[in-house]
Write the C-alpha cells for this entry.
Amino acid sequence: MKIFSTEQLYEADRITAEKRKISSTDIMEHAGTLIFNWLHERMQGDQVPIHIFCGIGNNGGDGLVVGRLLIEHGYNVNTFVVNCSDKRSKDFLINYDRIKNATKSWPLLMTSEKDFPKIDPDDIIIDAIFGIGLNRCPDGWVKTLIQYLNEQTSFKLAVDIPSGLYPNSPQDDPEAILTANHTLTFQAPKLSFFLPKTGMFVPYFEVLDIGLDPEYLFKTESLAELIAKPEAQKLYKQRQKFDHKGAYGHSLIVAGSYGKIGAVILSAKSAFRIGAGLVSCYIPKSGNIILQTALPEAMTIPDVEDDLISNIVIDFEPTAIGIGMGIGTKTETVSALKKLFSEAKAPMVIDADAINCISESKELLKLLPKNSILTPHLGELERLVGAWDNDYDRLEKAKIFSKKHEVIVVIKGAHTITVFDEKMYVNTTGNPGMATAGSGDVLSGVITGLLSQAYDPLTAAIFGVYIHGSAGNIVSQRISYEAVMAGDICDSIGDAYLELFAQDPPQPEETAEE
C-alpha cells in the first residue's frame, strides 16, 4: 500500500471526478457514507448521543454527510460547526444545506468557548474539524476546543485524520492536535501515522477505499510504501524440492567481544532460522566454547585475540556477511573493519558497534561497501547522520546519507522504516515487547540469512524487518509484551513464515449503502 502526500491525494480526487464524470460532492458523499456504514454496523441503532464537530472545509463536509445519514437513520445526533473563518468550501456549503433539509435541529454554529457542549463519558465524539489540507496550527478558541475534546473520556473517532495533525510535515504545536481513539482514513494512510512524535495521536486506524482513480494511484510515485502482509507475501522466495544447503548460502557473522558472545549466538541462530544453509561465526577466541556449546549447528573461526576481534581472516567466500553486533570499538577492531570493507565481495549487514566505528572514522565511511544494509537504532543513527530537528528531518538526513553512500538504512523503531535513496518502506509488524536487549542482533541475523539465500539487499531488508516484527507479534501474543526476550523472537521466526501464508478468518459481508 502506498502512502501519498496531500497534493497527490487532491490530484487523485480531481482526476477521479474528471474520469468518472462525477463531482467532488459525489466523492464526499461516498466517503461520508463509508464512515456512516462503519458506525451503523457497530451501533445498530443505539441511542447513545453522538457529537459531530465539523470544520468549514471539506473535512467538515464529510462530517456533515455522516451527520445527515445518522439523523436519517434515527440516531441521536448533535452537529456542531466550528465557525473559525468566513471562508467555506463549496462542498461544505452543499452538505450544510442538505443536513438542514434533513432535520429541524440545525447544526450549532460555534464561535467561542461558551458554545462548548457538555459531553458525557459514554457519548461518542466524531472529529471532522480539520483534514489533510490544514496548513497552520489551530489557535485561539479552536485550539481550546481541541484540548477540551481531548479531556473527555468519550470515544473519539477522527474522520480521515485527527484535527490539527499534518499528514506529511512536522507539527508546530502538539497541544493543538486531537488524540483520536480510532481514525478512519480515506484511500491511504498518512505518513504522520507512523512517526514517533505524531503517531501517538493515531493509536488505531483503518483505511477506507473511497474509489479514487486506480490508474493514478498505481502510476504515481508515492512518499513511501507500507509493508503489510500482502506486500510481504510477494517478497518471499519459494524453495525448490531438489535444493541442498549450498543453495541457501554461507553466512558469516562477525560479532562479539568479551562478555558479549550472546550477540553472536542470537545473530547466528537467527540466520539459521530464517533459512541460511550454513553459518560461520568469526569471534574472539574466548567465545569459541560458548558458541559451539550454545549453537552446535554453527561453525566457528576464532580470532587470535581472546577478548576482541582484531584481524578477520577466513578461508572461504561467504555469501553474506553480518558484522558489528557486540564487537566494541577498540582500535584493533576498527582496523579489522577497514580490512574487511576493503576486501569483502559479499553483501553486508552492518549493525551496532560497526556503525559506531563508521561514525568515528571518515576512512571507514569512505570504504563503506555499496548496497550494504545499515541497521542503526536511533542513537546510532544520530551518531551516523547528525542530530535532527524532528522526525521528518531525521528521514531526510537518512535519505541523503543513503543516496550519497549508496547504502540501505534501516531505521529501527515502532514502525521500522527502510530507506534507500529517495524511497522509504514503512513496516507494519512489531510491538513494544520487542524493546528488549538482543532484538537488534536477531534482526541483523535475519537480514544476513536472507542475503545468504540470494535475496537482493533491498528485499532482504524489507522482508527481514517484516518477518522479525511478525515473529515478535506471535511470541508476545503467547507470553505478553513484558515477557518477550530476544531469543523468543528468534525461536518464533518459523511461526512467522507459517503465518505469512495462513488464511485470514473470513470477514463479514460489506453493508455499505451507496
